Amino acid sequence: MSTFTIFLALIIIVAFLLVVVIMVQNPKGGGLSSSFGGGGGAQLGGVKKTTDFLDKSTWTLATLLLVLILLSNVTILDGTGTGESRVINGQQEVETNIPAPVQAPVENPEEQGTN
C-alpha cells in the first residue's frame, strides 16, 4: 500500500467527520447544544461546553484536512521518482502513430487546358 493511498483514506475519513460535525451544528445557535439545554433548568454539561467542543472540533478537523491534503501532494511527487519534467530536459519520447497524410496526385497543368 503506497503512502498516497494511506493519505487518501485519511482524507476521506476526516472529510466525513468534518461533514458530520458541521451538520450537527445549527447556524442559529441550536443544534446539538440546544438539545441539552432544556427550559433553562438543570443543564447536562452545559450548552456553552457543547458549542465550544463542536467549534473546536470543526477547526481541528478542517486544519487536519488541509495538512493531509498538502502532505499527500508531497507523496505524489515522491511516487513518480523525480519531480522533473522530461519535456523540459528534452527526453520526451515522441510516438508516431499518426499516419502520414496521403497526397492527391498532381495533374499535369498542360493537360488541364486540352479538356
UniProtKB/TrEMBL annotation:
UniProt keywords (A-Z) are: Cell membrane, Membrane, Protein transport, Translocation, Transmembrane, Transmembrane helix, Transport
Q: Which Pfam families match?
A: SecG (PF03840)
Entry GO CC: plasma membrane
Q: Does the keyword Cell membrane apply?
A: yes
Q: Which residues cross the membrane?
A: 6-24, 58-77
> Where found, per UniProt?
Cell membrane
State the coiled-coil residue ranges: none
Do you know which InterPro entries this protein is assigned to? Answer: SecG (IPR004692)
Q: Which GO terms are recorded in the biological process aspect for this UniProt protein? A: intracellular protein transmembrane transport; protein secretion; protein transport by the Sec complex
Record keywords: Kinase included? no
Q: How does it sit in the membrane?
A: Multi-pass membrane protein
Q: What is its main location?
A: membrane
What does the record give under GO molecular function? Answer: protein-transporting ATPase activity
Region Disordered: start-end pairs = 88-115
What family does the database annotate?
Belongs to the SecG family.
- Main role? Involved in protein export. Participates in an early event of protein translocation.
Descriptive protein name: Protein-export membrane protein SecG
